[in-house]
Write a structure and sequence with these properties.
Number of strands: 8
Order of helices and strands: EHEEEHEEEHHHEHHHHHHHHHHHHHHH
Strand order of the largest sheet: 2-6-1-7-8
Number of helices: 20
Strand content: 5-15%
Oligomer: single chain
Length: 389
């Protein structure tokens, strides 16, 4: 019997989804993410073991440090992702995990630690959409909430009552588990257990200095000393804050227009209907906001240099994606010109690899498992050789 496939979706910003992923693994539910290789490999004596290339996930998921061989239930599997809605998600039930954007964006800023102020971080365009961080968060949520077969669960509810949140998720999926299994999954997925697992991982891998498991609490955004930036997030996300039941004042700015959606091919691959885009085009002050977006991108392209790329904290692949998106935007907008950069020349061979990967992913091309494993090993060797700076 083929297992029913469920998607666990959350924004890229830290939203607590790893807690639910660890609970699923504790309950024997095969949970994985999309990679060029396979996250789970068949074990010699039966069951599955973690692909060594995904070993770094142990700092997020304590279950991966506690157990080596996994025997999953055959009726269900969960793929987790930060993807935007596309055709592969159609027909599948969606578990959507969300967090107050003021907390989520502030947490992401502290985790990634770019050499930017919080406002500069918020203004820096998303590599794929060229939207500022708050608008990108809003559009991601709106796009997903427009999909059928989706139910949202909040980080704040998990923090207040983890058992009830897990029971609600399992109820939505039609899964029944016995009391000892439920309690065991909850006990093994606490923040303390995750912090212990990360501490062990970092002791074994001292080169990994990024802190993942912070003692995240509800309302951490109040600790920010940049009240104007926090207020800007709340203003743009006012409608979604109200929809999710978060504390907020009525906002006036909102978002709309979004000329990026008119010219970037990424947006054409999203499974949202014409009415979705029409609402954005017809939003109050949409024309003025669209003109403002264009001007900000023009200014950004003129100011972008190799120093700013380094300060941004983006990965090499994210920089590649950003430059591709800016090139696409400039081709459609007269007067837009990208400043001269050394980075593309220094990484030209790596960019050939990424262009092939992006082309394959956009067209749904997928190699057999044995070929993906081979390409994954080749990718690691290629990356180590080509990305030395």
């Amino acid at each position: 019997m083929k297992p029913v496939k469920i998607y666990l979706i959350s924004p890229r910003e830290p939203s607590g989804a790893t807690w639910l992923i660890n609970c699923f693994l504790e309950l024997g539910i095969k949970t994985y993410r999309e990679t060029l290789g396979e996250m789970w490999m068949p074990a010699a004596g039966g069951g599955h073991v973690l692909n060594p290339v995904e070993n770094h996930l142990r700092k997020w998921l304590p279950m991966l440090s506690r157990q080596k061989v996994f025997h999953f239930r055959p009726d269900i599997e969960v793929e987790w992702a930060h993807h935007w809605p596309q055709r592969q998600h159609a027909g599948h039930r969606i578990v959507y995990f969300v967090r107050d954007p003021r907390d989520a964006l502030f947490s992401r800023y502290r985790r990634e630690s770019p050499d930017l102020s919080f406002q500069e971080f918020l203004d820096f365009p998303d590599p794929r959409t060229l939207l500022d961080k708050a608008t990108n968060w809003c559009l991601f949520n709106e796009a997903w909430l427009s999909q059928p077969d989706i139910r949202a669960f909040r980080f704040e509810d998990y923090k207040q009552d983890a058992r009830r949140t897990l029971e609600d998720v399992l109820g939505y999926l039609g899964l029944r588990v016995d009391e000892p299994a439920l309690l065991g999954a909850l006990e093994a997925s606490t923040f303390e257990k995750a912090a212990e697992a990360e501490k062990r991982y970092r002791a074994e891998n001292p080169e990994d200095v990024q802190l993942i498991n912070r003692a995240s609490q509800v309302g951490n955004w109040r600790a920010s000393d940049d009240a104007a930036s926090i207020a800007g997030i709340a203003d743009k996300a006012a409608a979604l804050l109200a929809r999710f039941g978060y504390e907020a004042q009525p906002g006036e700015a909102g978002y709309g227009g979004l000329p990026q959606a008119e010219v970037l091919g990424f947006f054409r691959r999203l499974t949202v209907d014409d009415a979705f885009w029409r609402r954005l085009r017809e939003a109050p002050r949409a024309q003025a906001m669209a003109e403002g977006q264009v001007q900000r991108l023009h200014d950004f392209m003129r100011s972008l240099d190799d120093t700013l790329l380094r300060r941004s904290g983006l990965s090499h692949h994210e920089i590649h994606t950003l430059l591709c998106s800016l090139d696409e935007f400039a081709a459609a907008c007269p007067g837009a010109r990208l400043a001269h950069l050394d980075w593309p020349r220094q990484h030209r061979l790596a960019r050939l690899w990424w262009r092939w990967a992006d082309f394959s992913r956009a067209r749904g091309f997928r190699l057999p498992a044995w070929a993906r494993r081979g390409f994954w090993r080749l990718r690691g060797q290629f990356r180590n050789r080509m990305l030395k700076t």
